[in-house]
Design brief:
With 164 residues, this protein is an alpha+beta fold. It has a single domain, classed as Alpha-Beta Plaits, CATH 3.30.70.560. It is 27% helix and 29% strand. Strands 1, 2, 3, 4, 5 and 10 form a six-stranded antiparallel sheet that branches. Strand 8 and strand 9 form a beta hairpin. Helix 3 packs antiparallel against helix 4. The protein is globular. The termini are far apart. It binds 7,8-dihydro-7,7-dimethyl-6-hydroxypterin. 7,8-dihydro-7,7-dimethyl-6-hydroxypterin (ROI) binds next to strand 4. The site of 7,8-dihydro-7,7-dimethyl-6-hydroxypterin has 11 residues, from strand 4.
């Protein structure tokens, strides 16, 4: 059975725009999956240590037949191909791919928490989600519009559409 999945993309190292463009292409090539939409590109100040570059963020909407944990394996393989190394907690990264929402499921396993932890407090997730689906309801958390109203303001900026 196929399910609609929202995936968060973030990068602040090694040409972040290209990291995100390439990652979107790789998402579009995943087995048993189809890339339906992306949010376009957003720029935001780092959440976490401030002595790191600003982030570029986007959200992708994927239709997939992959199970959540199998999708996670694929996302981690893409991150690794992008040279992802974990330096410090909440530190800089070449590419971060997070399963934000997996259909209307709430998942709590050792590897995976869905909806993604922190989703409701992160403008760099909420605004891109709004670009794709303004009337979204986040399982267990309510209307996206209400989450946005309650979210602390940052300097997030929409940079425009993502071209290949
Ligand atoms: N901060 C921003 N602005 N964007 C991110 O994608 C992001 N990702 C992270 C941490 C380090 C928490 N900060 C971030 O993982």
């Amino acid at each position: 059975m196929s399910v609609q999945v929202f995936i968060g993309l973030g990068s602040n190292l090694d040409n972040p725009g290209q990291q995100i463009r390439h990652a979107l292409r790789e998402l579009s090539e995943l087995e048993s999956s189809r890339l339906l939409k992306d949010s376009g590109l957003f720029k935001s100040p780092p959440l976490g240590p401030q002595d790191q570059p600003d982030y570029l963020n986007a959200v992708a909407l994927l239709q997939t037949e992959l199970e959540a944990e199998s999708l996670l394996d694929h996302l981690q393989a893409i991150e690794n191909r992008h040279g992802r190394v974990r330096s410090r907690r909440w530190g800089e990264r070449t590419l971060d791919l997070d399963i934000l929402l997996y259909g209307d499921k709430q998942i709590h396993t050792a590897r995976l928490t869905v909806p993604h932890i922190g989703l409701a407090e992160r403008e760099f997730v909420l605004y891109p989600l709004e670009k794709i689906q303004p009337d979204l309801v986040v399982p267990g958390k309510g209307q996206l519009k209400d989450l946005i109203k309650a979210c602390p303001r940052t300097d997030i900026a929409f940079l425009g559409t993502i071209n290949d």
